[in-house]
Amino acid sequence: MKLLSELFFLWLLSLKGTVAHPLMESNYLREQKNLEPLRRFQFACELEKLSHSPSSSVHTLRPSDIKAIAAIGILQTTPDSRTDHEDLLQSPERTLLQASMGTLSALVSRFNPSVLHQPLPLKTSGAASGTKAISILDQAKEMVKCMKENQMIDFQKDWKLITVFFSAENLCSSCASTHQENCSLDSMERLTRVLDFLYQKVPKAFVNLVDSTEFRIFYLSHSDENKIRAPCNCVDEDSKLDDIILRWSYQSDLEKLLNSGRYDVRDDFTIVLQPFLQEINLPHRMGWQVNGTSIPKTREEITEEKCSALGVGLWNNMVEPVGQKEHYHYAKMLQAQCPSQEYPYLFTYKNSNYSSSSRTSEPEALSQERSYGTSIPCFDRNPSNTVPVSVHNLRPADIKVIGALGDSLTAGNGAGSKPNDVLDVLTQYRGLSWSIGGDENITTVTTLANILREFNPSLQGFSIGKGNQDSSNAFLNQAVAGARSENVPSQARRLVDLMKNDTRINFQEDWKLITLFIGGNDLCRFCDDPVHFSPDNFTNNIRIALDVLHREVPRAFVNLVTVLHIVTLRDVYQEKDVSCPRLIMRQLCPCVLNYDDNSTEIKMLESFNRRYQEETHRLVESGRYDTKEDFTVVVQPFLQRVTVPKTEEGLPDSSYFAPDCFHFHQKTHSQAARALWNSMLEPLGNKTDAHFLETAITLKCPSQTESFLRTYRNSNYMYPNQTMPDVTTPLPSSATPTPAQEPDQNHGSQLLCEDRAPSSSSPTSVHALKPADVRVIAALGDSLTAGNGIGAEPNNILDMNTEYRGLAWSIGGDASLKNVTTLPNILREFNLNLTGYSTGTGGASEPNAFLNQAVPGAVAEKLPDQVRALVRLMKSDPRIDFNTDWKIITVLIGANDLCNYCKDPNYYSAVNFTSHIQEALDILHAEVPRALVNLVEVMDLLPLRQMFLDNQVQCPTHLTEDLCSCVLPVTEGSQELVMVMEATRAYQNSTRKLVESGRYDTQENFTVVLQPFFRNTKIPLLQDGRADMSFLAPDCFHLSQKSQSQLSRTLWNTMLLPVGEKTDFFDPKANITLSCPTPHKPFLGTYRNSNYTPLEPTNKPIQNWGSDLSCPAQTPSESVPTSVHKLRPTDIKIIAALGDSLTTAVGAKATSVNDLQTAWRGLSWSIGGDGTLETHTTLPNILKKFNPELFGFSTGIEKETAGFNSAVGGAKANNMSTQARELVELMRGSSKINFKEDWKLITLFIGGNDLCHYCLDRETYSVENYVKHLQDTLDILYRELPRAFVNLVEIMEIAGLRQIERETSECLVPGTTLCPCFLTPQESSPELQETKIMNKDFQIKSMLMANTGRYAQREDFTVVVQPFFRNTIIPLDNNGKPDLSFFSMDCFHFTERGHAEMAIALWNNMLEPVGQKQSYNNFTHGRSKLKCPTPEYPFLFTSRNSGLQNTTPAVGAGDPLVPYWAVILAAIAGVLVGSVLIGVLMSRRLKKHQHERDKATEVNLTAL
Prior knowledge:
Number of helices: 40
Low-confidence stretches: 1-35, 75-90, 120-131, 170-181, 224-237, 282-305, 357-369, 721-745, 1446-1504
Strand order of the largest sheet: 1-2-3-4-5
């Protein structure tokens, strides 16, 4: 292989007047340039003075002793590379390594400013452009020559620091897979020659040896493919395993070479392996995340930002003892370490007191040289008298064929390897594999196959010897090393084909035993992409594989072995007394081994591991695979809670592992085989799920009474989860399409259009397209377009798996328009030659689906794949003239994204959703001529909740989690529901903006038209108010043919409407008549032929934030009520408020920084009375509509007109009792009120400042003190005020303000000044988590205090918790950014608009029963959001009149007799929902990387 040489020296000039080498830089310029990288790093070392007597020994060498720095290294190319030498010298890899040496030189120069540096010449000596690169040995020779010739150093006496960057040969080449040991050996021989040369020729030298293999592979793998071919193009998992093992072997050989002492004989020379690049941890794909840190999308960005860090990493390695050196981490900004006073020198093997020891002791090695056979204690080994027809009557001896699917644990990697022979882990000992190996016999090798051969010596299918899955001796062991769950379906496909085609197997008659074991590699990589490796995707992959077996393999018993408890692998990895190749372990399983014990990643791993197991059980227990008499799947859970085997000393026993401490040794394979056999004989419900592998496992025998392999039926076992097959991912249909059900005549339509003629000639513009011009129709989407359950009979929920594509609204072509209303059947009335529509039933891949490429369960991410499949079909089908025919393509996607939104809001964000839509439309735009694309807005799913909330409607409520987990099962008013509501609106807005951008109107023959009729969806109701279930499929979620027909009519009519006039409402019960093109509007509506100009979202500015209230006229109570539980709004005479600057309305109308200190009390949400309700929405202005004589509200900005607004800016909970006393005295002293007789409404809102300063004084601002101060305040009001209704408004969720701080730059004041405890901590930091928890504690414990019954002993007084701030969601604008129109100029206080929203939310809360109050605030402008009291419920709601307390208060001074637990339970539920959601969101590893903002100049402002 050709080598490209690199030779660069880093010399520094310091002597004035010396004749410099031609390439020498000036000392000053060099110093300034090389110090530049250091500005990025902290370097606070105390610099020693230059030593007058440099060290005589390399083992006491200090940085100040070094006089010259040099480096040599290679970049290699593939043999046939067309890249010339000079091009590669300019490669990013060379730039990075050179920059790293520049940083190293700058660091050393801080100790010795005279250290010398010579830059790399433009062309390496002896290598002209286009010629072969010189070897690294030649580079070493030239370096020594230059050093000797340089007059500025004394070659014999000066200390030299030389760094050798060395890379192994291409470990992923054919050399690696065919000549494993020789490949590594060749590289080592070349390196040894270089090091020997340096040892022999260079005196006084400290040599850094840097293995840059990982670094080189990363950079060449991401180079321009037209210049450099990636040297490591490993595409299959087997090759990746080879790659990991071979790289470790090479690095291990390096360590052995240096540990040998070969280069430590002389006292003035040493070579030290610096491992900082061995696990460089650079991202493997641009745009991915590494440990939660976003990776730049271009290599250039990485080059610019991170090159200097490599030099710091090398420096740190030099001052770290051997054995304690750390690797470079991409996402971590390094700090340059300092030599200590105790160890001021560079570390070598000798001064580190380092020695390597053999990893496996001789006794252990001997113990592994033993037989792993067993004996069968069973006497009855006979088959059934006749071949059984039922799998539930299957005896071991009846089995004639054995097969297996899985990964390297089934392939047998390393099962027979000798101790320490790590390279041999690449060998697949399939004959020793626990579930299918057939080497020798049971007396020497224990495997499931060898056990079964004792019952049936004619068993076929087992594997023998060594080899991969393609070798003949692998037979039916189709496991692939490195496989993940997504690879199992292809394994199943290959296994079926092998069984069908092998003459030794009677495919129809022979009973087969197939063992499937997978999941370890999914868990090992889950942290790279938690969505891709989610439990749902894992289970779906298993389901697809089992579906193949279920559909195609007769007479089969399938063992589904649950994934093992992989976290226990950490026990082996972390035990220092067990010698293992930890580098290999980390690379094989980074997500298990790279994180701390209590980290979020490990908690998520535990969760995924557990859910993999649970979902595996749930899949099988659905009964999905028990629909045939000759087939079943049985979960074998014996590895579910397995622990690491231990020695007598309590240490992990490495003899159970292959030499890599990851794969199973034959010892474990034997134990696993015994455990699997025993599990197969254990009845369901009594299977062992935890084995101690170090204990003896005795083989069980079938008994006379229980002679069969155990299934759910012969175990008399009822699956706990068995209801019906999962409906979220329908069963694949058979390859043969079945006719659609007999159409219902009522689902047809009449088309009364007279003009059905096409254009006189085929139009060239999509804006002149008539319905009759359309020749091809297609559709993309999810189960709504696939037609799931359209034709299902009522209550036949199993039929939800049937895809009635011929009845699908936008693409179905069954029968004709007379009895089936679909868009194709409408278009066929205009053009009988229409093609592309689907008929009958079946999956997307079946012929009758044609151009209906919708896939049930699809999310937006899968839409581009559907588009590509559609384009391929249209291009290849002879019925379609791809370039000439006009096409209509209807796209509807997004329901499944919304149903999963609350699980991962980042992944299912509107930005990602729109990005996937854009990618799909871009493909159509680029590749499909003559097309009109209907992009149907995502459906609002929230109305569908009504079916599942109505007890009179018989809907499968047990399936809500599976159907739509973020919408159907969640609590009313919960944050999940709010999130979905906001996401729906964001999805709709973002798709509208995408289409209206004009992106798809650049070609005359293509356009995308948004069809918005799903924006508002109405649930069809019967006359009695119940939902009309005839419009819904049996699952109450999908649409029946009745609804699909209405959907088709709505789509057709909307297509004819001009853009800007299209309907945004879908009412399934409406009487929808099919429209017709008119002479004036004969074309399908597009943006151009509608003369439509998209309106910017910022239309006319809203003049004011008033509201309209049109409640029926209400009169006060006939007499002044004596009970607060019969208090009407009209009865309230006095209004008051206590609180902080949010109640004084600081900054509500601020236009400059000076205004931020002004309190606009007249606009305050709870107490302001400026103007009228029509111009200013406040609680007093609302109440003035009921009682114009209301008194106590604030006006203006002066203290004198504050009324009974006793709030003070900056107040905390400990100030509230003072405010309460002042308020009582104000009321007592007022001559305008009747203190005893007038009803009073007081709103108390406090706590923001307590939380914002909690971290500064945890005791003062503790939740206990907060609640105590609230209680003291309420006690004063309770004791002193007659006839009072107190609103206790829960403290808001302050963490949302972080989003404003993070995503906007318009705030005049740094948030850290106003709220340090929420806005200063880093994301996911313990401090932030603690404060969030305190936020919830403030809410919960204040609510508990208010609902103890303490304030219910008087008939004329109550305290009601108003929870609209419990789940606070920051309002967003149309661009998805925080909407600053709600916030003042400090981005912390509220504007008048924000106060208006708070007033609306408070008023509506007051009219909602306790336990049913809305616990979030919907920040959307609307003048008609205010609720009205009803004739049935005319009172302000209290706990008692909400039905949560007795009708009369308890008497006496004792505890009340009222069941206050009811109201507490009802109220606390909403708090806990928000808390759980916060916990989930905080546990996600994938967080945006944010730079800290520099603290701005503090402005003296009023705190919250």
